[in-house]
Amino acid sequence: MAIVALVLGVAGGVLAIPFGHIALSQIKRTGEQGRGMAIAGLVLGYLSLVAVVAMIIFVIAAANGAV
Question: Residue 34 region, left (φ>0) first, then alpha (ψ -120 to 50), else beta?
Fold first, then answer.
């Protein structure tokens, strides 16, 4: 799960967020390794989410003539 979160985060996918949270809970429960990859995937996922929201706001503002 942590590897999937990291790969999705690098690819710019917002799906890295749920995979990262699932990976962290799985790591906490089972004691597996990969916490750093899961956190990196989460950070990249949240950054891509912020980018998507900013893009939507920019497009709406541009459509209304504010930009």
Answer: left
Which of the four pLDDT bands, split at 50, 70 and 90, describes residue 27?
Answer: very high
Which residues have a Cβ under 8 Å from the Cβ of 22 and sit 6 or more positions away?
Answer: 1, 5
- 44's tokens: 């990249």
**Amino acid letter for position 11:** A
Give the domain range for residue 45.
2-63
Q: Whole-prediction pTM value?
A: 0.88
pLDDT of residue 66: 77
Query: Phi and psi at residue 5, in whole multiples of 5°?
Result: -60, -45
Q: How many domains does the chain have?
A: 1
